[in-house]
Design a protein that fits this description.
Layout (H helix, E strand, L loop, with lengths): L10 H4 L3 H7 L4 E5 L4 E3 L7 E5 L4 E7 L5 E7 L19 E6 L1 E7 H10 L1 H27 L2 H16 L3 E2 L3 H8 L3 H13 L3 E4 L2 E4 L2 H7 L3 H12 L10
Antiparallel strand pairs: 1-7, 2-6, 3-7, 4-5, 4-6, 8-10, 9-10
Helix pairs in contact: 3-4, 4-9, 5-8, 6-7
């Protein structure tokens, strides 16, 4: 059923040895999800772990009392959502939504826990991923506190296209503003500046990157710090990591 080396793979699962992947494979089911689909809402019981494959990308959002939702981290084929380290079904704290649709592996958390118990290597992989996930959260907090909107927007766009694998993001300016927790007018001004400099093009419902390296030069270094930590803890899993 599942292919350990598929073009539409989960890079996280691809890091497993074939014998360990074989323990998990019978419990994997393939699901297709569309942009905008909600995987969990705050308080939902987390009964499944979802692993994005290929170009599929999700985001975690913290919902505030004001009604605003602020993104914390992106999760693509390098990661997983739900049941990463916990044992048993627990409530979700943040909303997990699909940003770029595609294929996912889905595994019940109960079966995931059983495989972790039977295989220290599988348990270790997900523990190391949890450490990398926490590093992303820490970096996101620091980034939102000190970096400019322009730096953050460039960083976010680069992180998205690195995961999707092409220079095009299906997203409106309103959605970008919401992802970053800023007003639409701020997001619009930043994108207009990027357009004047030949870095991006906008179309109805999408943003295309015209000059990836120049845009990367506009971004803060937060992506690089996270990638460096992934490289030390989970070499070859983070998008763009050559190892």
């Amino acid at each position: 059923m599942a292919s350990h080396a598929s073009q539409e793979q989960s890079d996280l699962l691809a890091a497993l040895r074939p014998t360990d992947f074989a323990r998990l494979e019978p419990h994997l089911s393939e699901v297709a999800m569309r942009a905008g689909d909600v995987i969990y809402r705050p308080g939902d019981t987390v009964e499944y772990c979802y692993l994005p494959r290929g170009a599929s990308v999700c985001s975690y959002f913290v919902e505030l009392d004001s009604g605003m939702s602020v993104e914390t981290i992106l999760v693509g084929r390098e990661g997983a959502l739900g049941g990463v380290v916990s044992h048993g079904s627990l409530p979700a704290y943040a909303r997990a939504s699909v940003l770029h649709g595609g294929l996912f592996w889905r595994v019940p958390t109960r079966q995931m826990d059983e495989v972790k118990s039977a295989s220290p290597s599988v348990a270790n992989l997900f523990a190391r991923y949890a450490d990398c996930m926490m590093a992303q959260v820490f970096q996101s907090i620091a980034c939102n506190a000190v970096h400019t909107i322009e730096e953050r927007a460039a960083k976010w766009l680069i992180a998205a296209i690195d995961r999707i694998g092409r220079n095009d993001v299906t997203m409106t300016q309103e959605q970008l503003a919401s992802m970053m927790g800023i007003g639409r007018s701020y997001a619009s001004r930043v994108l207009q500046r990027f357009k004047r400099e030949g870095l991006v093009r906008t179309r109805r419902g999408g943003i295309s990157i015209s000059d990836r390296e120049a845009l990367r030069g506009k971004a803060c270094s937060c992506n690089e710090h996270v990638a460096a930590h992934f490289s030390k803890v989970l070499a070859g899993v983070y998008p763009g990591d050559p190892q």
